[in-house]
Amino acid sequence: MSDSSNGQSTASFWTQANALLRKNLIFQKRNIKTNIRLVVFPFFLCLLLVLIQTLVNNELDKPSNRCGCTCVDTGRNGQCERRCGIEYSTLDQVFTCSIPHPPPLPPLLQIPSEQYRAIRTDFISYGDLPDGSCKRIGSCPVTMLITGDNQTFGQSVAGNMFARPLNIDLSDILYSLADDALGSETKTRYTNYLDPAFSSNVPVDFLQPQCTSNSQFSVPVQFGSATFQQDLRCVQGLQLWRNSSSEINDELYKGYRKGNAERKINEIVAAYDFMNSNENLLNVTIWYNSTYKNDTGNQPLALTRVPRSVNLATNAYLQLLLGPTVKMLFEFVKETPKPETTLRLDFSSLLGPLFFTWVIIQLFPVVLTSLVYEKQHRLRIMMKMHGLGDGPYWMISYAYFLAISSIYMLCFVIFGSAIGLKFFTLNDYSIQFVFYFLYINLQISLAFLVADLFSSVKTATVVGYIMVFGTGLLGGFLFQFFLQDSSFPKAGIIAMELYPGFSLYRGLYEFSQYSFNGNYMGTDGMRWKDLNDSDNGMREAFIIIAVEWLVVLCVAYYADQVVSSGRSPLFFLRRHQKKFSSSFRKPSLRRQGSKVFVQMEKLDVQQEREKVAQLLLESSTSHAIVCDNLKKIYPGKDGNPEKFAVRELSLALPQGECFGMLGPNGAGKTSFINMMIGLTKPSSGTAYVQGLDIRTDMDRIYTSMGVCPQHDLLWGTLTGKEHLLFYGRLKNLKGASLTQAVEESLKSVNLFHGGVADKQAGKYSGGMKRRLSVAISLIGDPKVVYMDEPSTGLDPASRNMLWNVVKRAKQNRAIILTTHSMEEAEHLCDRLGIFVDGSLQCVGNPKELKARYGGSYVFTMTTSPNHEDEVENLVRQLTPNATKIYQISGTQKFELPKHEIRIADVFEAVENAKSRFAVQAWGLADTTLEDVFIKVARGAQVFSVLS
């Protein structure tokens, strides 16, 4: 069969896109309250952060947290002068004071605490380590490990590190201390304006090969204008040789202090591998103790006491070569000058990853429910049946959600910046833009993919918001701990970030860290150059989100084509096969299998089948619809047999005919309509609409098809006029033609006057919605229209008006109409087909069916019950083949064969009966279409039971 022209040109890609965009914009305008509620959530969270920040700042601004001040007597008339500075501050206040001239401090080694110093244990059995009894009396030495290619040379260099006795020159404390190996057990801070070793009650240790009995004393140390006494304590330094660096590594690993685990810990001060060093070359590798360095990731790294270890090695090497009088002194370490600062904690950065994860992911259920809403209410398929292609739908829907998400994120960032949240103001806005843009694209793609899994808006909403809050909580209370654990493998972090919510959390976490540190240190937040930092996970987050976006988008489109559009999973491999199968037919081979079925059919049904066979052999035809052995079988479930919904239906409809489908509930009428409009695929056989195969060419069929479904598929927030404008644009109506077509459609179904056209469809009555659905099915002059019980719920006046619309509409198109109203079928349909149990039982116009299946009169007479026998005798005298079909309380009905009686004889018999007994009422009627329907249905059902 060849394609036939449908008169109306098909709407282009951009015309369809324009129609959908206009509809979406109207829909968005009507849901302004929902949009406001959506924006209020991040607005509320940002205000909550500002409130918390204000409360914290008020607490931090108390005098106890600011640089200390006092009133100093100037000696002038008893007046005092207010002075502020370190010398007037407590230890809690000193960090906020200005330090224009930071004090020089002696460089120190990191000395293990007494309980952690290396001893012999069951897992470290070197005999040169001290026995564990030294811990009970507090006399354990600190250990240095030495190795190298030349043991004699290595031990000689190491022997010069702290072989000299302590010599304190009180006139120059720093110079005299620089000649000795000093150390401390205290933890370092993030700055060195005041080293904890000199601001606590813990003595500073100096290392000696042996300590004398009187080995602890105090020396004066000047800090700014203040001088205080610092205790110095001798600690024995034990230098031990190891045969290789691998032995040192093994010993260090076994003795490493891991967190706060209560286990035996063997720490050393430092280890030196002099490798191939000699008198002409110094080549040394140094291990240092970083146990006390803060590396949890949520604070700036603390300083490490490494420079002194380097100086000990180089100075000892120099003295070995040139003698003990030559020194490479390391006199002091000193911080840069510091202005007075205010103690601040940026809570937007601390809580940002959790709060802002919720803010951004809440867009996911919004997009998801919108997509599922169209799926649940079959609005997507309704648009498709009226000509909307997959390309315009995906492009406009995706761009629509992307625009909404972008505006939402822009408002979020602008508002957060306007109220001064450091999370936004310190980090580079271009990085934020790229990150948010990539993620909202991934989120929209994910919503399209997940929408295929849901058919209920309520279920999708619940699952969506569980994902919102679950992702935030899991990110804040699980994923963040892995990020902060430096021992957790990087590959594990990347694997976890494959879940989109965690990749979002990782990016927000990096923003928060940079903004927090920037606020604390007075520096900038994240910049593009920072992405090269190995500790910055933003680059990996960028890559993961971008790749997942593209992958998920492709998978979502594929799933949509398979799940929503009903295509084969291998549809992308069948483009060439599609064209071949729609043009090559083998009807003779196909019909051999249905020979037995044909022999059992009624003559009119068999003639229809033969007509279809002839049409299939013709090169062209004027018939709009040709069904060829169409069959639909639903598989059995829960032990039930399979259900035959439609049994090898063959039917041909010419242009300008309205074909009515009658049948009891469950007869297969809706299943047939669903196959014709593309909602379900036929199990076998096919049908041609305008010469196009419903199995392969539904996208082209949709452009010339109109549908009035059994249930109204409407947007509650769109008006009747807006519905018709949208579907009219899909049918390529434009400008004045569109306006005229919409007005005529509204007038034809009585929805134009009284402001009804501009009333939202959700406020329509059931009858008004039904009339609007009929108007939608006829807009744009479709050549084929399917109406599934169009007059359901209409009052008599509206029904008659609708009938007039359908009668006018069928002049230049084919209409298939299903109904339970015999009056409607007789009034509208040129031909009727009665379906029972999925089979077509008879075909013909109403008069033919009544003549063929209702060749009798119905005689009714009402008398007293005493004369019932006399009435029956009267009927038997008229015709012995009369059949009683009804009897109750004196009222009896009989079927009289038309060819055996004359109407005049019936009237004469009744007049004679009236002279013998009282006749209360009587009547003679021709067979109705309802009688025909009941007779055919009962006969088919009896045959089905017997067979």
Can you put this structure into words, describing what you see?
The protein has 4 domains: 102-322, no CATH class; 345-564, no CATH class; 613-844, 3-Layer(aba) Sandwich (Rossmann fold); 856-926, Alpha-Beta Plaits (2-Layer Sandwich). The chain is built from 32 helices and 24 strands. The chain is 44% helix and 16% strand. Helix 27 links the parallel strand 17 (784-788) and strand 18. Helix 2 (32-60) runs parallel beside helix 11 and helix 9 runs parallel beside helix 13. The protein is α/β, with parallel strands linked by helices.
Can you summarize the main beta sheet?
Answer: 8 strands, mixed
N- to C-terminal separation?
Answer: 37 Å
Rg calculated over all Cα atoms: 47 Å
Helix content: 40-55%
Beta strand %: 15-25%
CATH architecture of the largest domain, by name, is 3-Layer(aba) Sandwich
Number of strands: 24
Indicate the structural class.
alpha/beta
Just give the CATH class of the largest domain: Alpha Beta
Are there runs of 5+ residues with pLDDT below 50, and where?
A: 1-7, 258-262, 576-599
The coarse overall form would be elongated
Number of domains: 4
Summed up, the helix count is: 32
Average pLDDT level: 84
Say which CATH homologous superfamily of the largest domain is assigned: P-loop containing nucleotide triphosphate hydrolases
Write down the CATH topology of the largest domain. Rossmann fold
Protein name: ABC transporter A family member 7-like isoform X1
InterPro entries: AAA+_ATPase (IPR003593), ABC2_TM (IPR013525), ABC_transporter-like_ATP-bd (IPR003439), ABC_transporter-like_CS (IPR017871), ABCA (IPR026082), P-loop_NTPase (IPR027417)
Family: Belongs to the ABC transporter superfamily. ABCA family. CPR flippase (TC 3.A.1.211) subfamily.
Organism: Sesamum indicum
